[in-house]
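hiii so um. not sure if this is the right channel but i have a protein structure encoded as tokens and i wanna go backwards to a sequence. like what aa goes where. can anyone help
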């Protein structure tokens, strides 16, 4: 039986129990049954909340969700239980449900900055950037600048995020965490040189390169939830939303009855604790790199050329033959004679030329001017794995800067660099064509 079914069944039993006790009550001068049931409910809720906290400590999101939902069902006006429920939903990758839980917690406890921050993160993960930015702005006074700045950048407002973090970095209280969040925000904005300079303040040059490589891979999320899921170290799952019965304004009995067995079976009370403070400065080595927004991971945008050395020598690439009398298989990409100049606008770094081709199609839809240019690319090694860099160019420096600014204005991410072996994209080449890198 699903957690939702168990929860709804439990609520039905509580409603029935409350009605039966109420019928048995009399007007004698003894403690009322409703008082006793309220005490039982309080203890049972604390016990299930403790079990949810223990499941979170084991990184067992689904189990934590089940216990946290029961705690909220028993004590719906407890802000700390709603916070625990939101944290459990986050651990289980259920971002839509988490946004509801944190919104309820914030309504019950309007000064809870952690609830406001987690609400914004959940909204970012569901693709609701506008609501996330509103949450961050409305609660600016209760969310620490170091967290609010990065959250604004993740919500697409990198200019505001950089402004908040720059001010924090210039204050006497500046620390490595603030500087690293600022560096990440610069990277999210495609301002790689500044990202490198700020990141280098707290780490060795070799570590900076590794960090920026990780951010480069983070730059191309396939779904709205990818970045936040990566930050939290969880996997997003299909989410129908928080059960309706748990809504903050859902009708509930004034004195819910709790079976006697609940008191005997309840585990020892473990007071639920709030999530650990946000930490973001470090990235772990293997798998998904860890930073923190809780325990989280950092990452972002396309990697500038200066950080990676392209493989030298000619690149041989074969493509499918194009039948005569037809447009090239990639008719959407009309090949244009290259302009004079050695400056390029880099649009991203992808795991293969095929993925880069899809990225080019998305970029051209976002910024129609790109359709009149032919894409360029090249394969290079990053940590022993092939990465395909996508660009458009052959411009003067001023022309490349102008194009990148226009692309940024359309919501794209790019940066300008000099040529580094960029050649015609693989999917545009004729069979047997060999392109030598410059």
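sure thing!! here u go:
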């Amino acid at each position: 039986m699903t957690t939702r079914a168990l929860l709804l069944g439990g609520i039905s039993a509580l409603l029935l129990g409350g009605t039966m006790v109420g019928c048995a009550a009399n007007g004698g001068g003894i403690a009322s049954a409703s008082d006793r049931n309220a005490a039982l409910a309080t203890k049972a809720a604390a016990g299930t909340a403790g079990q949810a906290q223990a499941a979170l400590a084991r990184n067992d999101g689904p189990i934590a969700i089940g216990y946290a939902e029961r705690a909220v069902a028993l004590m719906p006006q407890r802000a700390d239980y709603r916070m625990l429920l939101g944290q459990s939903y986050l651990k289980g990758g259920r971002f839509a449900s988490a946004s509801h839980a944190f919104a309820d917690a914030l309504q019950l406890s309007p000064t809870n900055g952690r609830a406001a921050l987690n609400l914004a993160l959940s909204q970012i993960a569901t693709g609701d950037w506008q609501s996330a930015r509103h949450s961050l702005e409305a609660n600016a006074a209760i969310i620490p600048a170091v967290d609010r700045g990065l959250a604004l950048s993740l919500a697409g407002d990198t200019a505001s995020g950089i402004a908040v973090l720059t001010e924090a970095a210039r204050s006497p209280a500046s620390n490595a965490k603030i500087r690293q969040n600022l560096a990440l925000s610069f990277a999210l904005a495609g301002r790689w040189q500044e990202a490198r300079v700020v990141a280098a303040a707290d780490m060795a040059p070799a570590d900076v390169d590794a960090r920026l490589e990780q951010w480069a891979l983070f730059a191309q999320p396939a779904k709205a939830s990818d970045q936040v899921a990566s930050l939290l170290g969880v996997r997003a799952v299909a989410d129908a939303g928080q059960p309706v019965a748990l809504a903050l304004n859902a009708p509930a009995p004034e004195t819910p009855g709790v079976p006697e067995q609940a008191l005997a079976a309840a585990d020892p009370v473990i007071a639920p604790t709030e999530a650990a403070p946000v930490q973001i400065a470090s990235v772990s080595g293997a798998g998904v790199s860890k930073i923190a927004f809780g325990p989280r991971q950092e990452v972002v945008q396309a990697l500038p050329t200066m950080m990676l050395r392209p493989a030298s020598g000619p690149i041989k690439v074969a493509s499918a033959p194009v039948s005569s009398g037809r447009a090239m298989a990639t008719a959407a990409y009309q090949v244009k004679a290259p302009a004079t100049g050695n400056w390029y606008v880099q649009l991203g770094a992808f795991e293969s030329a095929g993925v880069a081709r899809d990225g080019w199609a998305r970029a051209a839809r976002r910024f129609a001017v790109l359709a009149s240019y032919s894409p360029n690319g090249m394969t290079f090694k990053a940590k022993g794995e092939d990465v395909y860099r996508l660009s458009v160019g052959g411009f003067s420096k001023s022309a490349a800067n102008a194009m990148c600014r226009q692309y940024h204005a359309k919501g794209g991410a790019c940066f300008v660099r000099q040529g580094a072996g960029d050649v015609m994209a693989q999917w545009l080449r004729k069979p047997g064509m060999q392109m030598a890198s410059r």
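oh and Confidence is low (pLDDT under 50) at residues 1-32, 252-339, 432-438.
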